[in-house]
Design a protein that fits this description.
Helix content is 41%, strand content 19%. It has 352 residues and is of the alpha/beta class. It is globular, with a radius of gyration of 21 Å. Bound molecules: pyridoxal-5'-phosphate.
Length: 352
């Protein structure tokens, strides 16, 4: 991306998120040529194909195309739970922190946040302690929600074994498990496993086409055929029946066909960025396993995080200043090796 700053055409290195990714030329071409129909009548061949492909990639019976990760998670909550039910989730999870409490606001569902461990996991004892017994005073626990990779916990991938343990516990208590797998293919790449292994024990999973996979819009919610049939109703009531959205699904198909196998490159670049930042006095870097990197400044640095973000922006490098003085940088398809070196040098310059 280039931006005109003060008359100068400056290349922008946009590390704020993998959601800033532009569609690839192959996606634009596929969108132009997409065959479409009325999806609310089930007649959009491109959406139908994308949903079949997504379900297959997750090893589930069926899938539903939704406009965003937030909508996919909300549709899952509305489908698994009724009004007055409760969901156990991590206190740093995206669903708890960044989705406007949609489950409560729109579904009458109570979130019960329990501590995320630094690697994004939930302790089994904490889950068990949060499960309500049958009592007229209590909401009914219905669902456990996990996140993989974990955005706020350094983009850490959750192993299949970890997910299986939570699912075993939940299922023993008659609960279901939903996975916010916005970046599930990053997790699979980092762990060197098929994404199906990471989701085989959950009842539903949402993954995003629009983040590291570069599609302009869209996520898929996957689960059993019965679950997805109900989820289709929930999507409709939220206004998510999209008619000729095969135009968007066409880009999603390219995302699944062409963009998954290259995600490991983003992880290599995030590690190189971490290495470079570690060499700068005053910078501490969290462990990096996927495409999300957090760093912060030691007390010796006199600049505020806002000043640093502004100074970097002035040099054409965009990243997010987050809570507690943490900075987040996310690598993606449009970030090259040279961009990483530019970012490292910009941070060095911004701190001196
Ligand atoms: C872990 C996680 N879940 C869900 C979402 C929501 O996705 P969307 O922005 O498409 O609503 C995000 C977005 O960044 C995310 O990081």
């Amino acid at each position: 991306m280039h931006r005109n700053l003060g008359g100068e055409n400056m290349k922008i290195v946009d590390l704020r998120s993998d959601t800033v990714t532009q569609p690839t030329p192959a996606m634009r071409d596929a969108m132009y040529r997409a065959e479409v129909g009325d999806d609310v009548y089930g007649e959009d061949p491109t959406i139908n194909r994308l949903e079949r492909m997504g379900a297959e990639r997750m090893g589930k019976e069926a899938a539903l195309f939704v406009v965003s990760g937030t909508m996919g998670n909300l549709v899952a909550f509305l489908t698994h739970c009724g009004r007055g039910d409760e969901v156990i989730l991590g206190n740093h999870s995206h669903t708890f922190l960044f989705e406007q409490g949609g489950m409560a606001a729109l579904g009458g569902i109570t979130p019960w946040p329990i501590p995320n461990q630094p690697d994004g996991t939930l302790r089994l004892e904490d889950i068990e302690g949060a499960i309500r017994e049958e009592n007229v005073h209590f909401p009914r626990t219905r669902l456990v929600c996990l996140e993989n990779t974990h955005n706020m916990c350094n983009g850490t991938p959750l192993t299949a074994e970890c997910t299986a343990q939570v699912a075993r516990l939940a299922h023993t208590h008659g609960l279901r498990v939903h996975l916010d797998g916005a970046r599930i293919f990053n997790a699979a790449a980092a762990l060197g496993v098929d994404a199906r292994e990471l989701v085989q024990d959950v009842d539903s999973v949402m993954f995003c086409l629009s983040k590291g996979l570069c599609a302009p819009v869209g996520s898929l919610l996957c689960g059993s055929a019965d679950f997805i049939a109900e989820a289709r109703r929930a999507r409709k009531v939220l206004g998510g029946g999209m008619r000729q959205a095969g135009l968007l699904a066409a880009a999603g198909i390219v995302a699944l066909e062409q963009m998954i196998d290259r995600l490991a490159e983003d992880h290599v670049r995030a590690k190189r960025l971490a290495e470079g930042l570690k060499g700068i006095p005053g910078v501490e870097v969290a462990p990096v396993t996927t495409n999300i990197l957090y760093f912060w400044l030691t007390k010796e640095v006199s600049k505020t995080p806002e000043e640093v973000v502004d100074a970097l922006a002035g040099r054409g490098v965009l990243l997010l200043g987050r809570e507690l003085g943490r900075f987040r940088a996310v690598t993606h398809y449009w970030i090259s090796d040279a961009d990483i070196e530019t970012a490292i040098e910009a941070v060095r310059a911004a701190l001196t």
